[in-house]
Structures are given as structure tokens and as C-alpha cells.
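TL;DR need C-alpha cells for one chain.
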Amino acid sequence: VWQFTNGTVHITDVSNASRTMLFNIHTLDWDDELLAMLALPRTMLPDVRSSSEIYGYASGENFAGQGIPIAGIAGDQQASLFGQACFEPGMAKNTYGTGSFVLMNTGAEPIASDHGLLSTVAWKIGDEVTYALEGSIFSTGATVQWLRDGLGVIRATADVEALAASVPDNGGVYIVPAFVGLGAPHWDMHARGTIVGLTRGSTKAHIARAALEATAYQTKDVLTAMESDTSQEITTLRVDGGATVNTFLMQFQSDILNIPIEPSESHETTALGSAYLAGLAVGFWKDTDEISNLWRAGSKRIPTMDAKTRQSLHATWSRAVNRSLSWASSEHAKE
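>> reply
TL;DR here they are.
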């Protein structure tokens, strides 16, 4: 905004401010105690505004003489939540990239997590503030990249689906992709990647399948934490990102969660969410109800796995995760 307005407007919105570790998400203002601890003068920081209003105008000299209103600001994952039209408490989305980011709308009050999740401001429109819980998963798409670049199991990322689907199950093989530790809900910087359950019968197809399944298991762990924190059942997961084109993964995700998976028809939900926020500010859209009616699902996935299989698979995954925890800690190294 500062650049677009040629240094005339120095602002941010509540969703971005809430991620600086300097912002009080309860008072919706910079935290004086934290600023004092770090000797940061408040005058250095941008004014904090809502996520949908006209903040200023893009400099006319850069836009053919037209002053274009700047009217929507949101953090990328909050914008994706908005773009997925998750406007009601309990609605959740997952964005699959190199890592994955699961956000759940928690309504008008922040919920302090007891299960390793982040409480954040989702957006503010007018005087109404919406909060969310977020779980960050470090390695999902990056695991497939590792299969391609590190192991040479596949030549192209898209090859992983056919290879994984070429075997009827994972053959007892599980990959915990803790290459840089584990994020939510474990938050273990000392965890390290593991492959367990290998036998002489294990093939690269089993490893490829285990890599994709790991994405679904990690997502389940985060959603379980969200349900525990909110005492609210998540009944559908809206999804976006590159991995949503992988039909094997989307079906397995639905199966292991035992809920429908709804990919957005739009693959660019972050940009879409930002556009929605700006459109509301300038009156292009009337309200979030109108935006909800615009949301369209792509190829929806319905769970087909039986409960016994689902529970057994996830229980074994949890055992594998336990093997990876604290692997690189100094205490473990002494053993």
C-alpha cells in the first residue's frame, strides 16, 4: 500500500498485524508491553485497519492517470479462507502447497488452543471481527518433490498419482516427512523424517503411496486438534492448491477424515478472497451472503472407506509419528 500510494498511506489490516507477534488480537491494537520489551516505537508501525475498506488510491501516474482504490487487505491464508466462503463458525479449508495450511472459522471470539494450533484474526469487516484457528503442516507437496528430486522415484510431480494407485494399499509402509521437524499439532523441531514398515516386498509404488497418504494423515491430525479445541465437528473440508488435482489424494483425504472433500472450482482462492474483500468495500458485492452464493465446488469426494480400516491406518500412522519425535534432540543423541 505504501508503494502503490507513493508513500502517502502507511497501513496494514488486522489479519496481517495479528501475525507479527506485536499485535494484541483481543484489543485489536499494537501491544504496548511487547513494544516496550523490544524498544519499538509505536510511530514506526503502520496504522491497523479493517480488511475491507478504501485505504487510499494507487498513484495515477502508474495507472494511466486513474486513481484506483485499494480496498482489500488480508494475509494469504486468511484470504484463502475468505475466498473459500468459509463464513460460518466451524467451516474449514486446507490449502495444499509445498506445505499445507488448515484454517477453521471460529467466529467472533478467539479460541486459545490447547492442542498446538495458532489463534489468529481471520478478517475484520466494518465493526465485525472473525477469528480462526490455524494449523501449519511443513511438508506435503515438498514430500513429493523429495521423491522426484531426492530419490528419483518419479520424473515429474504428476507421475506420483499413477504410481501410488498402482498398488492396492501401502503395504504397511508409512512415511513421516519430518524433514525440518513437525509443525502442528506436534511442534517438534527435533523430529526427523522416517520410513517405517519396509519389507523385501516394498516397492517404489508403496513409498509413493505412503508419501501421499502422509499428507492426508497430517491434515487429519490438525482437524482433530481443531475439533478438540472448539468442541465442534467439522463436517466438510474445502480444499485448494496444486494437490487438489490428485484424485487419489483427494479420495484418500475424504476416506481418512470420513467427511466430504470439496475442491474449489477456482484454484486461486487467495487472490479471490482478496478480490471479494475489495469488492465489498466498493459496493461491487452487497454482503457475504451474496459471495457465498458465488462459491462453486469442483469434483467433490465422498468417503467410502470402512471405519475399521480407517481407524487401523491412522493408528499405525500415529505409531510412526511417535518414532520420529525428538529424534535429533540432544537427549536422544546421548542414548
